[in-house]
Amino acid sequence: xxxxxxxxxxxxxxxxxxxxxxxxxxxxxxxxxxxxxxxxxxxxxxxxxxxxxxxxxxxxxxxxxxxxxxxxxxxxxxxxxxxxxxxxxxxxxxxxxx
Length: 98
Known about the structure:
This protein has 3 helices and 6 strands.
């Protein structure tokens, strides 16, 4: 996988309370990924970017919410996130990533 596609697949870490709990308990990290990204692409991108071994990848699509404003209704865009489980003893340090 070329370096350009790595940055197209991984859009960034998803920071939330649930993501922090999952990271502590199951050695999983949550990433915001491209809507057209596959599990294999996510796995290769994380392994290449952070130099870790990935055990499992679970993806899901988050549907955009319908919001009401003064012009009527608008829809927030849908997006995709990936739960990446690392091998035992592996860790991702976002501050030291290249």
